Fold these 2 entries.
Entry 1:
Amino acid sequence: MKHIVVLTGAGISAESGIKTFRDADGLWEGHDVMEVASPEGWAKDPELVLDFYNQRRRQLFEVQPNLAHRCLKDLEEDFKVSIITQNVDDLHERAGSNEVLHLHGELLKVRSCLNENLIYDWQDDLNFGDLAEDNAQLRPHIVWFGEAVPAIEEAISLVETADILLIIGTSMQVYPAAGLINYLPYGRPVYLIDPKRPQGTLPTQTHIIEATACEGMPHLIKLLRKKTE
Ligand code: OAD
């Protein structure tokens, strides 16, 4: 089976009702991204940050995977599919995808502020005073701006073995995620689904499908089937 590596961003969850980061004047659900997604924001106002992610976590229980998430699961019938997602939602998992690597953490996990390896599953609100077993405050298991991205090496290895790279709904502005494309072996096809072409240089062999994820995915599946016929 050919190996498709998929890089997803906020755009794939937009049609499920989760807002993207950069489509609304740089505001994310009404907040400056740095206020709620940086160690500085956490140091300045941890309660605001906890409240923000509590709202995001609650919202997760109100939304469902959409057609694009389900199409990625369907691709597993014909391809080995590895998903690298920048999203912190669990919509790929709920659609049934078997291999999902979260680059920027997960909303349904929390971790010790002092030990990044003390990670717990978490479905409820997280409050100030909720402690890990090392007695440190628990924080959202989210990779904030300025923090290392522990999963990046694994993501690079996946892209290095890809026969096809598929990019869906990311503005490709956040590194190191945006740099993953540089690890794709020379000449391998790239498909990109986004209603707006991302900034930056794309390989010449990029096939751009200018559409939303739910419009573009069925189209892509048809294209890939034609190629393998
Ligand atoms: P962005 O908000 O930067 O980009 C969203 C992309 O989705 C844009 O290119 C939109 O054109 C596209 N888009 C919008 N609606 C769409 C739809 N219905 N279907 C397909 N595409 C659509 O989000 P990301 O690139 O994911 O990091 O942002 C990367 C990282 O920046 C996030 O993981 C997050 C953020 O700060 C952290 O929280 C650490």
Note: The longest helix spans residues 213-228.
Entry 2:
Amino acid sequence: MPEIALTSDPAHLRQGSSIGQPLTRRDGPLKVTGGARFAADNHPPGMLFAVMAVSGIARGRVTALDVAAAKAHPGVVEVMTPENRPPLAGDPDGKDSPFSFRLDALQNSAVRYPQQPIAVVIAETLEAATEGAALLAPRYEAEAPRTGLDGSAPFTPPAVGAGNPASASHGDVEAGLQDAARVMEATYETPAQYHNAMEPHAIVAAWDGPRLILDTPSQGMAMAQARIAGLLGMEAKDIHIRSPFLGGGFGSKGMLNGPQLLGILAARLTGRPVKLVLRRDQMYGPVGHRAPTRQTIRMGTDAGGAFTAIANHTRTATSTHDDFIEPAADVTHTLYATPALATSHDAVRLDTGTPMFMRAPGEAPGSIALESAVDEMAEACGMDPLAFRLKNYAEVEPASGKPFSSKALRECYAKGAERFGWAGRLLEPRRMRDEAGLLVGWGMGTATFPALMFAGNARAVLRADGTGLVETGAHDMGQGAWTAFAQVTADGLGLPIGRIEFRSGTSDLPDAGIAGGSAHMATVSTAIHHAGAAVIGKLAALATGDERSPLFGAGNAGVVAREGRLHRRDDEARSESYAEILARAGLEEIEATGTGAADPASREAFAMHAHGAVFVEVKVDPEFGQVRATRVVGAFAAGRVINPRMVRSQYFGGMIWGVSFALHEKAVTDARTGRIMNANLAEYHLPVNADVPSLEAILVEEHDPHVNPLGIKGVGEIAITGTAGAVANAVWHATGVRVRRFPVTLEALIG
Ligand code: MOS
């Protein structure tokens, strides 16, 4: 049986504080009783069902649709095609930032990728809409699809990821390789992967006069609101988005997508509320994916095993009509010290949906290649992989020279290795067996993810009844973010968690920015913290300026807020409750706002990353090559832990995805048709319970006063990064076979 260890870490529990407590999800009971209303659960009166018809070819154009047959089907109300799609004020093919993706919204008859929407059938029932869509029987003029990483002429993109340079270097790599005592060069390939959130993309769109009401899962409501406003020629304030629950996102719900726009347009066309939910196979096209990569890594070390040079050239793919360039080589800049380093990217244009941010974009595919290469280099040096990493990890960011939190990384190496029992590892591969004769391998990988922040806002209120409120348009993809924000709220307002209200998840609340880049907890918590401090400041001013208060004359800095009371710092016995202060001032409530954003001065001075180390055991059947990950131990340092239960759960999720990356996931494209052959959850392999090993996540304590006032770094993405490479390295250690094309398959091990 897989076992998930919940070893508690008392160091994170602070007395009298909500922050640090392993609270369970506040929305847990709603979710397990079916009371949580996800977007597709909404059913406004008069609602119609929309079903997309999607392209069966990868490239070409639609020459005929049997609209008459679909319209004649009982229950079908309307068929939306490029002929009758309502006009747009903005160009869906417009792009003004790396976060605005070109959308397919029935512009014309062109087909740019398989599963592209080509029509929408709108009916009284889901069944009628589904049947109507099938009756469209599209005909096409098909052209030969471009597939694979050599599918078209490569180009050098102007930028990668969210705007990083496509290439970067320092020192002289060629000289470094020339002078090296040992060199290695290898090419690693990672496949296209699809987000596959459990909740499919969905929208319920209803027009209320000039206002547009949208129930749709979103990782970035304010950004979606602005984009929709531009496309429809509306004011953002007239667009109301509700996104209280998400069943996963992983990046695919970060930006407005084409099907959302089609749902809105279907409601405009019919004048009735419309629900549009993607089928699972329709999620393999218009809503993003992780692009494939081919990474060529060259490394050199001196006689003592210290790097003299590292280079990564990454080839990746984007669509024919938009640019998202998976920044896979960039992680090479953030882990290991070397006097010479060069990274570069190029890309090919394929007849595929546009790739997009997907959990640890860049870092996930980049680190499975980098950590494999580091392991190969250690092997060439005859060194233990941990000893090799301890020799080479960076104390300062290689390019900028800014200091890292490398002490935390050292602790992750030490704690993870000890817990795993790494010291008992034999250096040579294929030497360890279990009692059943299976080959046993132990591998490790370093985890890293930048500690980013976006900009977000919050509003805090203290009420005369002694309760408090925080409002912020934040997002919870299912990981328990709102529970953690409520904990930050309680501490920010100096109230027990039972006396606070936390409102979130709609676009009319203060803009909290995007839930992405593992930055939401840091950004929004900082906003809440500042809003709380501001409203407590107002309360303190009321008390300390009032002769009738026991706090009179103490000054704002002379009071401390705790459990709904302000105390004099110099004499804690002299205190007054929030309710008393507000009552005497004759106020129902007071409020203040706060903003969370990165501090440019500290970002200038420090390289900010979360770190970790992951240790994996695999067992491999020597005859059949079947691999099972049997044990994963990760140690992670990511600043202040708001809720250890949620944080550990994020680490488990990341580690499971790391196992999945190394052993399971791959979208397979048919080179003849350009179609994805496994666009379903039966054949697109994901780990199920039986594939999930014993997991353990160690929370390494880290106090980083520079990232933000609460010392928070993100935890959503880091754990996939070390794990995938650790699994690959464990497979090598078990078998002596170095697999460089992922996922690892049976035939690679027995072939
Ligand atoms: Mo994440 S890929 O930034 O949702």
Note: The first strand starts at residue 48 and ends at 54.
